[in-house]
Structure of Major facilitator superfamily (MFS) profile domain-containing protein:
Amino acid sequence: GMHSKITETTQLSRCKPSPDYYGTASSSSSSSISITDSSVWSLHCMPSLTICTLTVALCISGGFQQGYIASVLNQPYIYIESFINDTIHERIGIHPSEHALNFIWSSLNIMFPIASIAGQFLAAWACRRFGRKGTALLSCLLYLPGTILSSLAEPARSFELLFLGRILWSLANGINSVNATVWIVECAPPSIRGGMAAMQEFSMAVGSLLCQSLGLPFSTPSLWPLIFLPNVPLVLIAALLFLLVPDSPTSILEREGDMDKARHSLARYYGVSANSPLLDDELSTNKKKSKIEQKTDNEGISWIFNPFGLEDDKMRVIQQAAWLGVMVKIAYVFTGARCLRSYSTFVLHYLSHFTLDAASLGSWIISAIRIPSTLIPVFFVDRIGRRPLIIFSLITTLFSLAILITSIMVGNEMKYASFVSFAVLLLVNAAGLGSVSRFYAAELVPRSLLLEAVSILAGLEAFTKIVVEFAFFPVANVIGVYSLLIFVVPSFVFLIAIWALCPETSGRNVYQVLNDIANRKNLKVSFTP
């Protein structure tokens, strides 16, 4: 009635019309907005309390956990190695050889990426079976024993608990990394979707820095088990926040088929009334699957890996969209930002010839500056767009690597230039490609394929990351500065490919993005809701 119209007008008065990709806006009076077709408008409103609550919960249970678990063994590693050594001696009466101890330590570290990959492949099944909300709560239930068992390893005199705890912790993080990407893409209004998704990179930086800071007082023979425990109350807070928000509307339709419930869920995330026309465009993507989406469901996800035999032009477009997503993810891996961040102290000490203390301090300073850097895409990715941030990151990466290599080759006279270029390399990718790569792939494929595609492509990215990170360290020890060429050539190739092939996704629905890709391929096909 009149009340709902007034409420709607009030809500829409806070929204800024954006006719760019949706056609021509109908005329409106100077004091109100008249909407005749919801597809004409993008939602440029203040985020609702529900979407903010979801974002915080996903950050704590996703990016923060990834940053924390990746750093948790770094600073107290001497005392953990000593604990493993002493435990084995207590059991069998002899100390393990240095080679055996290094193998155990390496195995403990590699549990994180391996279990994460397993979690990423399990994520699609878990999200279908338990819904997005249920999967998030399941991940929290796995986080708790993972952290607690790791902390109990020393008093129990069982280093195996470190392995078991790290496996559970990493498995949960792998599951939730996929769930977080899919859930936020399904629920955030298009005009703020990028900013909400980019918060994952910010939370990862916070988790990493917090862990490094806690590592200073906890890196002692008696206190190192305590470094795992601060994660427990944070996981409980995340679980409580998940209980306060509804499941994703896509998940509701998949599991219950209740359009009315899905509409009310999306209305809470958008911060509008359930009868708002702003919901129609988003919900239309979930009402029914197109023939092409039904076909891919029947064939399974294997169609992504089939380079030949795709006779249907629409399938070819969707396949290319999926591979463009993984290309952006792998492009971030080959900038070297993620790998070199893991070895930052080694790069500054061994390659740039800073003292060990100066290298450690420099590494901490970069980690601290990285936090405000990751906020740049949160506020600007939806205004600037995905493509400009990606391309700027890659161009700056190439210049930074060139200066870094030159500075290291010149020697001590330019070691501060090497520090600055190294910092720029890490920070510009945190503000650009590193953040965008987390969700860009999810904006390229239809919703019915989103879960499986994100799960598979995240696993491929993680596998590539393992190969690069484990190859760099021994290669750098052998050939020194020339090991950085591993990142220069691929970054240049990816820059050209992304410039030529990747569409802009900001403010656009997936069908418009797919039509853009089809036009680039000169295919006479059209995708519609």
